[in-house]
Amino acid sequence: MNVMRNFLKYKTLYFFISALFLVPGIIALFLWGFNPSIDFTGGTLWQIEFAPEFENSADEIKAFLEESGHTVHTVQSLDGKSFLLKLSPLDETQKEEIKTGLSEKFTVFAEKSFETVGPVLGQELLEKTIMAIVLTAGFIMLYVAWRFKNKMYGICAILAMFHDTFILLGAFSLLGHFYGVEVDTLFVTAVLMMLSFSVHDTVVVYDRIRELKRIHHKESFENVVNQAIGDTIVRSINNSLTLIFMLLALLFLGGETIRWFVVALLVGTIAGTYSSTFTAAPLLVVWYNRAKK
What is the pTM of this model? Predict the structure, then answer.
């Protein structure tokens, strides 16, 4: 076997780079958790747009609503005239009272969207989200272990998948704490899609390892894995770049409503591309060497 480049020579560096992104995110998760949207907490999400002559700030709107006796979580300015209000659940009577008060205090406004989610529905959605992630991880681990007839492959693939998951979760914990970014059902969709993408690339690398083991059965396992990385890394990067270019276009042109969904997919794609080659494969070698000893 002609090993052109020793990728595994730097496996300690790869693990250090992973830790560099993992540790701050995990600390943030323990310290601050997430900034959940009304999808999970229950409440009212109300987008309004004032007339062109409106010159007040989000803080002034929030202060007025609180003085009126309403529980306000956030008031976010979208463009200086449009605002996104997150409040405790409102009924129609309360909504009309607020509309009247805002019109009298500031100026006439138009309602762009109005959505209310009850706290019971929010809790149910949260429980189903956790269950979906656990089931997904379990099925993926069983499939990979069965596919390669070795639990070592399945467990290493899941560890790489959790590597990507915690990088993504940690990133949004930090964004939520410092920039007020909320996690909603679109974020859950991004997490589940990222799990699939991460394992897809890992299976490609593992499949190449299996093929090379069959062809070069007298070679050391580390050389086989190293050759498999060299054979698949270019294809893996090229495949990821096609997705990254599309996501960047969506990020800049897609609008406010899907911005953080796209950011989540971008983080997951980059982390998944890295972990498939520089986390999943080195983990396999470390496990194999320890088992051999």
Answer: 0.82
